[in-house]
């Protein structure tokens, strides 16, 4: 929500997200073909050309295929959320998102419970498959968690409006004299409604949850996220955590299959204990992810962003020239 509200342009938002996500994703997909040919993954995983093509869409689960890298299922959820976000933005609902979110939460609650009932009565029917496809596309299971993020961002925007934050800086602590202004935020009608929306979103998520997530953990993570957003968790500025955050995308893409291959090789080839192999695989994966971030992801993203900006600049210049010509003709 923060990104698209900064861009104010669906094309720029999509370009920024795609240039950030896709180049590294495709490189790691290629690497995973190598990993899946190594022990121990070769013994338990096979892949087909159809699965490869489905993975190139970033949404293989929609087409009935598994991800080559198991953790990448969350990217499908993220990409689908961009679609939801663009829809909300195009309707002008992100500036005051609460009503739209309540509508989508109602869709999630009614839709998930109804689809569960249909699937339970006719699990093999075509209707069940179609409804499950719609369930994924509309993010009925996961939209409530995204709603928490959107509403926390809206709450932060409200805090800026009350003067609670003259300047929000992740590098420095919030000044102490902002405490009273922040306190007034929680008494405002809109703020209370936003907090109720967050509670409602968490409730819907757990009412439709199939994986027995712990509600207390969800509440705790939401509080931690809110505290981080409002600058109340100085620990998050600890340099090692900031470093891990800076390489988090490549670490996310690489850690699972790469770690499995590394642990297996050290255990079987070098004869080290599984505990030692795990302890060594963690820094190894961090080093590889850091190298990939600094020497691959960032230069590639910067190059592609510069090309995109050049293309946008040329289009803008052509449009301006066309407008100037038209105005000159009208004046003439």
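-> sequence recovered:
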């Amino acid at each position: 929500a923060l990104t698209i509200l900064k861009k104010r342009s669906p094309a720029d938002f999509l370009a920024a997200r795609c240039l950030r996500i896709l180049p590294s994703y495709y490189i790691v997909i290629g690497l995973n073909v190598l990993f899946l040919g190594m022990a121990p993954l070769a013994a338990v995983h096979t892949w087909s050309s159809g699965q490869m093509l489905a993975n190139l869409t970033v949404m293989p689960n929609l087409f009935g295929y598994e991800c080559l890298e198991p953790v990448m299922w969350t990217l499908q959820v993220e990409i689908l959320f961009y679609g939801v976000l663009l829809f909300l933005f195009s309707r002008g609902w992100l500036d005051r998102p609460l009503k739209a979110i309540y509508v989508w939460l109602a869709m999630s609650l009614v839709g998930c419970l109804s689809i569960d009932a249909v699937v339970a009565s006719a699990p093999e029917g075509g209707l069940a498959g179609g409804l499950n496809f719609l369930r994924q596309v509309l993010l009925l299971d996961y939209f409530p968690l995204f709603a928490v993020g959107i509403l926390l961002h809206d709450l932060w925007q409200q805090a800026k409006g009350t003067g609670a934050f003259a300047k929000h800086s992740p590098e420095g602590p919030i000044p102490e004299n902002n405490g009273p202004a922040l306190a007034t935020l929680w008494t405002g009608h809109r703020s209370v409604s936003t907090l109720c929306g967050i509670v409602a979103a968490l409730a819907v998520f757990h009412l439709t949850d199939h994986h027995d997530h712990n509600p207390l953990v969800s509440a705790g993570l939401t509080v931690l996220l809110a505290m981080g957003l409002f600058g109340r968790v100085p620990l998050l500025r600890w340099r090692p955590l900031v470093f891990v955050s800076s390489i988090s995308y490549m670490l996310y893409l690489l850690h699972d299959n790469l770690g499995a291959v590394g642990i297996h090789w050290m255990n079987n080839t070098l004869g080290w204990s599984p505990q030692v192999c795990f302890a060594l695989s963690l820094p190894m994966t961090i080093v590889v992810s850091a190298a990939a971030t600094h020497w691959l992801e960032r230069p590639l993203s910067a190059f592609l962003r510069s090309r995109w900006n050049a293309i946008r600049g040329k289009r803008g210049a052509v449009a301006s020239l066309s407008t100037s010509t038209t105005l000159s003709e009208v004046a003439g």
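The two ends are 46 Å apart (CA to CA).
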